[in-house]
Predict the structure.
Amino acid sequence: MKNILTVLALAVAGTLPVAATAADPAKSPVTPDSAPSALKGVTPQAGRTELPPMFKELDQDKDGQISKDEAKRSAEAQTNFDAMDTDHNGKISLIEWGAHEKAKQLSKQ
């Protein structure tokens, strides 16, 4: 009986980190199935979403966003910055970048 309780306690303790991650979606990793539609098709590497090469290049401070200053390194990003920054916080997130890229692809069709 004591062994059963020990195993049960260990099993419950092992699920706590998973439950904590699920309770705070902001800390959950983006997976292909959970990614917003703007990010579908972005290749995951080792459980992480691979950044598009241009996004990665522009994000000089590696904060996961492109500031207006960082966007100056690309004519397209600089020209379209305000349209891409849909939440108007002065930065382009990966989701905003992906949505813009998807819209570009759809307009070519």
